[in-house]
Amino acid sequence: APYPPRLLFPPRWTDQSFEERYVVESEVPDSERDPEVNPNAERDPTVHPNVRRAPRRVKRRFATPEPAHEIDVSLERTEPLFVTAVAADASFEMDTGPIAFKPTLMFQARTHAVTLRNTGMANLPFECDVFDPKQDKGARPNSRDEKIYSVAPVSGVVAPGGAVELVVRFAPTEVYASCSRTLRVCFPGASADGARDTTVSLNGKALRPWCHFDLAESDYLTSGRRPAGDGSLPEVSSATKVVQFASLGLGARVARRFEVLNPTSEAYEFFWEKTSNGSFRAESERDHSPFRCLTPRGVVAPGKRYEMAFEYAPFEGDAHERLFTFRAPSVNVSVPFLLAGAVTEPRVTLDTACVNFGKCLVGATRRESVTLVNHESVPFKFSFENLVSAAYGDNSREVTFDPPSGTIGPLGEVSIAVAYKPTHEGSRSVNVALNVDRKPNKIRLNVKAETYAIREACALEQDADYGQSVARGALPSAAPSGRPTIALAPAPARNAVSLGRVCVDDVATRRVSVANEGELTFEAEWSLGLNSRLSVSPEYFSVAPGERRVCEIAYRPNRTETLRESDAVLTVVNGRSYAFVIEADARKPLLVFSSRDVVFGPALIEANSSKHQNAPKNARVLTLTNQDSSPLTVDCAFDSVGDDDAGAFVLVSGPEASVGGGVLKPGASCEFVFAFEPREPRRYETYVPFEVNGVKSTRVRVSGEGVKPRLELQQSEKSSKNGSSGSGSVTLDFGSARAKSAIVKTLTLVNKCPLPVEVAVDSETLRAISDADVRCAVAVDGGSAKRLVAPPPETPEKADDAIGDSGDSKQTNENTVVSSSFSSVVVPARKTVTYKLTFAPEKRSRPFQVPFAVSVAGGAPKAVSLLVGGCVGAELALSRDALDFGAVVDGARVTKTVLLQNTGDVGCSFAFDVASALVGDKAHLRRRFELFPQSGYVGPGADQEIRLTFVAGFPPGHAGEDAAAKEDGAVSVNYDFVARCVLDDGADTPLELTVLAKCVTASAPTDTVRFSARARGETVVETVVRNSTNEAWRLAPTIANGNWRGAETLFVPARGEASYAITYAPLSVSSDEDPHLGSVRFELPDGTVDTRELLGVADSPETAGVVEASVQAKKAATITVPVKNFVESRRQRFRATVTFSEDDSSPSSEAVTLRGPEFIEVAANATRSYPLSFYGFKEGETTRASVTFADVDTNEVATYDVAVTTGAPETQGEISLRAAARQKVIGRVPVTNPLSLPVDVTTRFSNPRTFAVDGETTTIPAKTTKDVRVGYRPVVAETAFSDVVVESDVLGAWPFRLALSATAAGPERGVSFTVPLGSAETKKVTFAHFLDEPAAYDVRWRGGGGNGAFVSAATHQAQAASGLENHEGSEQSLDVTFEPMSLGSQFRDVLLITSETGGEYVVPVSGWCVAPKPVGPIVVGANGASVSFKNPFDAETTFVVTTDNPAFVATRSETIGAKQTKTIGVRYEPSDAGRGTTAKLLVTSDRVPGAPWAFYLKAE
Questions:
Q1: Each residue of 955-980: pLDDT tens digit?
Q2: Rounded to an integer, what distance in angstroms lies between the CA atom of residue 452 and that of residue 431?
Q3: Cα 838 from Cα 842, distance rounded (Å)
Q4: CA torsion, ordered 317, 323, 326, 327, to nearest 10 deg
Q5: In whole angstroms, what is the distance from residue 518 CA to residue 540 CA?
Q6: Hey, which bits of 1379-1435 come out as E strands?
Q7: Alpha helix segments (H runs only) across 1085-1226
Q8: pLDDT, tens only, 1018-1029
Q9: Pairing mode, strands 845-856 and 757-761
Q10: Are 889 and 1089 in contact (CB under 8 A)?
């Protein structure tokens, strides 16, 4: 059943969604860490602002990106949006009274809040600023006075009815003469008249202190963060300054520094005094305090700062406090300080608190892995220690760790392998402690497992035939197979296994069973030592709980030996082992062969096998005798399948069941009978294996030679016979024999092989020559001949008729033996056999060809000769036996013909005897009948036309002689006689021709009937016959001239008339001057004749037919034209001529092919198809031509119009093009031009990635074939099919199919950089754009751009590449800038330029950052000089500036923002005359130690 459809639910996401993940603190944006920008940013008060913190892992929130989605257009709808607005003037309330601040020490601050309330109905925007009313409005305020007062917020919007507090802060940094300022609050756009504002006067007084501590304020005392004690914490006043320390673990030293400023003009001395903490943490003066002052005393110069430093190094506990007092006795200054330290436990943890190994095997080692993760930015040392199990005591040896100790790097991970190897059975739970340096609490790891021991039971199955194997102290039991077993003892005990006596090459086995009585699967393996005759199966195995495996130990000796003390060991993995001692005695069986070499000698290759005969011809007997003292099982493992030599030998018989079923008792013998039946003329040799006791031990060689029967024609026979039909065969030609004659031929065969050969004539050959009147007799080596008679079809295998008159199978002489089968004789070696063949025909017969086939040595019949002959003679006959001239007008001359046809093989003379038939009262007819020719010769297969002419006339004295002058009607007389045709030599009986004629009186034609038609056409004209008598007439009209035809009878009713239709069908052309003449005679019952004259004119024939066909262009076709032979009496041979039409719409004869055979013969009154081969190039054209068939004898012409229309051509073939993306591959399209002029062809493609390599137009020379080159340049990996059409205005189109295949492109040429730190280099990455349309490419870095070192544009717009030659594409360039941020690093990344249509370009980019190069010299004048320096890092960095010449003075340090440039001022102040005028200015940073930026300076 199909799976149910998967339901997709939209993710839960809003614009407020976020996700939390750990990041390295350096990845947190500076804006989030800056308290001024982000008030919620956590700031560690124990870290000086100028001290760079080490990176650490912190948890941060990140906005969840909006998931990919598609807008469902069907759910779009329009919702009304209501907009409301309120227009009103500003109305507010604010206390504008003056604000006077109390006297404030320098570097301290006081604040005052003023409430601004919006009493209007609209939002109230406001802006605040502080200015000096005594200063001109255009004057720039003094930078030292700018930050006396500040207000927050500076600007904002107050909602209607809302209020906001404006906090004014007074923080003097100097003692000013006047601190009077004005706070101005401006309300832009408060009314239609413009902005409104209000002012508040500000005033205060600044006091100068003796000292100022540049230390951030801390809420440590006020927020209740002091450690909870027992109530004995010392009291600390609120004026106490707090210095906080945070230590990452124990033993770490944390330094805290802050500065003391002396704003006065007097210097004073100071010192730090320790104050007792009371009983807090039981600390005393003698106790080791974790706090230490690094600057215990000193002198603060006037107007200068002095840096104070304290160190915190805890070694125990988690929180500490210490009181110090800053004292300056000369100025009477005493300030209490509280040093508060807290120990933060390092975030070093294991990814799991428990490792459960599950079920384990005692003694087997199981391994798992845990991961130690360091979330801190500093390394830590770690080590494992074993704890004592509550139930089993010390288990330190069971659990081991790799590595047991080490160091984990900052923000790193260490994979630790935990190995557990139990030593006792039962449940285990081991607690392991992981000590991490500086971590106050140990990490606990619990290791659990359930251990089990192996419980196996091994037993040996007994064998009754070979004794028992007994292990000491073991009791026999029963195995699942039913055999008794003996339990085996584990090592060091040894278990004896006795195999007894074993025959060489035999196998003796014992079975050992291994059962698993435990709860875990165990594995076991065997070790058999160095004795290769011993084996075990299986050697390595496993046994599941509750199962039993049986192993078989086998001993296969290959020589006589005695096996003693042979060791074998069965070892259970992680368990016990079992030792075996194997004993055996190997010896050979005493079996005697009568022969080890059976030789058959030469033997004939016979087709019929003798496998199933009781007495084979070639047989040998092999006798085997058991002379051993024990019975032996003897088997012949002879197999003739798969071996060509072995296939010629057959095992006819072997030991029968009565002899013991193949078991030879001591002293007994058995016989094996082998037969040799070769199939090829070569030597055969094979070995017959005999297995004794089921083991292959002895081989007997059997050999023989196959001899091919060589029965060949005698050499004299080959040279004397007429013609040879092939190698080793001749043709016996009896010629053309006359009837009752005899021709004798002999055929002699020689036996050229060294053995007698049985030869037999094929029964089918005997039947065939018997049917051809050929008799056959056989004689061997000149002996008496015996006639061979064909066997009757119903008993072809009957032997009694094979020998002629003798009828039996006897030996005729010492060299001739006739077998009992048909025509079979045995020819001795080197002797001959002769066949006597007699051809004695009794009558004419057709020619015959009979292969004379003989079978040699029972093989398939093979023809050794071809018997050819025949009995020839003449066979004459008349085409008709009677000639009836009908009624002929007196004096008319009528000729009729009859054919004398000879269908025989020889010619024959003939003679007509007319005179003997015209005697007596018919003698006058000799002048009335003329026969031509009266004698002659008719060739074989020829016809002789015999013409008999009747000259009508009446006998002398007949009344008809003057009947024309009489008016009493017509007179007629009938004639008949028989003419005999005598043939030469009386070969046949004479032929007889009956002649009938009638002479009537002549009468003038009563009418003339005229006809007009086209040759081979026909027209019908009717003539009317009237009957004026009272009886109906049935007339037999007679038409003279074959161009007319009509009905044989005409019925004319009494006193009526009838129309007689006459058809005029001329076969030749006639004219008015020479028309076709004929007549139709109607012999009336009263003896008169009504004659009508027929006159016909035949015009030229019309087109015999129109043949139209539609075929595909560019494809050969055959068009058939039906040709009709209108002549009924003879065949016609036509000459065919093809003539193309000269119509402008028909293509030229060069552009098409239309031809056929030159001649065609059509039988009488038949139709035959004439084939025309057509090939047209251009589709949509109609080729018109006429095919004329002219009779070669009469020049009669028949013309056919042929119109062939060509359709669209089919695909001419498929061309495969395969290339990588953006690579070009070229294919070839063959185009043929049959014209005598050059032809231009154009190429059209369906795929934009394919193109014509040689341009859109290619010229094909006349009468040639040229290849049009087709190119393919893919852009992306694809597999597609495309069409390409080569077109010509004259020759049409050649469509081809392109099979396109493109693989992914390789990388482009890479770009490399070598840039000094602090510099940047830009190079161009070039690639080719192959599309003929613009494309937008997305540019991205696979690895993030080398952490920002590589910079490029995010997109690239490529213009269309059309119009370029050779389709090489347009070159595109993309700027890549390399600006490294770390020294000595090699940056590698891959630039991916991707477009959905233009494909993907992969460009490897590498860069190497080297040390900065020195710059200079920079001339330092009287006014100094400035050095431009850029911060190459992605974070704000403090750089230290030093010079090697004190005369050149520069700022000691500069803090420069990320990627920002700042100028460093340099002055030349020579103090001693010995100072030089050159120097080197070095700029260094902690981020790149040892690689300073060097600037050479030179003073003017």
A1: 877 655 554 434 444 577 888 888 88
A2: 20
A3: 13
A4: -140
A5: 19
A6: 1386-1395, 1399-1410, 1415-1420, 1425-1430
A7: none
A8: 899 999 999 988
A9: antiparallel
A10: yes
Which tokens hold the place of 558? 């290959």
Q: What is the pLDDT of residue 551?
A: 92
Q: Whole-model pTM?
A: 0.36
Nearest by Cα to 451 from 471, 422, 474, 473: 422
Tokens linked to 1442:
């030093």
- Write the single-letter amino acid at 1035: L
Average pLDDT in the chain: 80
HEC string for 1181-1195: CEEEEEEEEEECCCC
> Residue type for 427, please?
S
Average of pLDDT values for 481-494? 80
Q: Cβ(1456)–Cβ(1421) under 8 Å?
A: no
* 3-state SS class at 197: strand
CA distances from 1260 to 446, 652, 866, 1196, 1284 (A): 90, 79, 59, 45, 17
Name the residue type at position 229.
G
Give the whole-angstrom CA distance, residue 144 versus residue 142.
Answer: 5
DSSP 30: H
What are the strands, taking DSSP E only, across 387-442?
A: 399-402, 405-408, 413-420, 426-436
Joined tokens for residue 1248? 């934009």
What is the length of the chain?
A: 1500
Alpha helices, DSSP H only, in 587-695? none
Query: What does the block give as tokens for 836?
Result: 């006597």
Quote the tokens at residue 350: 């294991």
- The CA distance from 581 to 492, in Å, is 12
Residue type, 1230: P
Q: Which has the closest alpha carbon to 454: 520, 551, 366? A: 520
Token pair listed for 639: 């197999």
Residue 1026 CB neighbours (<10 A): 10
Q: Please, how many CA atoms are within 13 Å of residue 944, restricted to the half-sphere of its CB?
A: 25
Joined tokens for residue 939: 């060739």
Task: Look at residues 626, 514, 504 and name the one whose alpha carbon lies nearest to residue 576.
Answer: 514
Take residue 1214 and report the two structure tokens written for it: 């498929």
Residue 332 corresponds to which tokens in the numbers above? 């009477």
Query: Residue 1332 has what DSSP assignment?
Result: S
Which of 464, 454, 532, 466 is CA-nearest to residue 501? 466
796 vs 761: CA distance, rounded Å: 13
Single out the residue of 335, 439, 340 nearest to residue 45, CA to CA.
340
> What does the DSSP assignment read for 150-168?
EEE-SEEEE-TT-EEEEEE
> CB-based contacts of 40: which residues, under 8 Å, 6+ apart?
none
pLDDT, tens digit (0-9, with 9 covering 90-100), for 362-387: 877 888 999 999 888 888 889 988 65
pLDDT higher at 1181 or 1067: 1181
Strand order in the sheet with 484-487: 476-478, 484-487, 456-461, 508-516, 548-555, 534-537
The CA-CA-CA angle for residues 134, 140, 142, to 5°, reads 80
**Which three-class secondary structure state does DSSP give residue 686?**
strand
Residue 765, SS3 per DSSP: helix
Helix, strand, coil: what percent of the chain each, to 5?
5, 50, 45
pLDDT at res. 876? 83
Record the tokens describing residue 65, joined without a space: 């990106």
Residue 165, pLDDT > 70, answer: yes
H helices of 923-1010, where? none
Cα–Cα distance for residue pair 544/524, rounded to 1 Å? 11
Tokens of 1373: 């360039």
Bridge partners (DSSP) listed for residue 1082: 1090
Distance between CA atoms of 469 and 472, rounded to whole angstroms?
10
Q: Are 897 and 945 in contact (CB under 8 A)?
A: yes
Question: Residues 1389, 1350: contact at Cβ < 8 Å?
Answer: yes
Q: Please give the C-alpha separations between residue 655 and each of 1048, 1061, 1490, in angstroms, as whole numbers.
A: 97, 103, 102
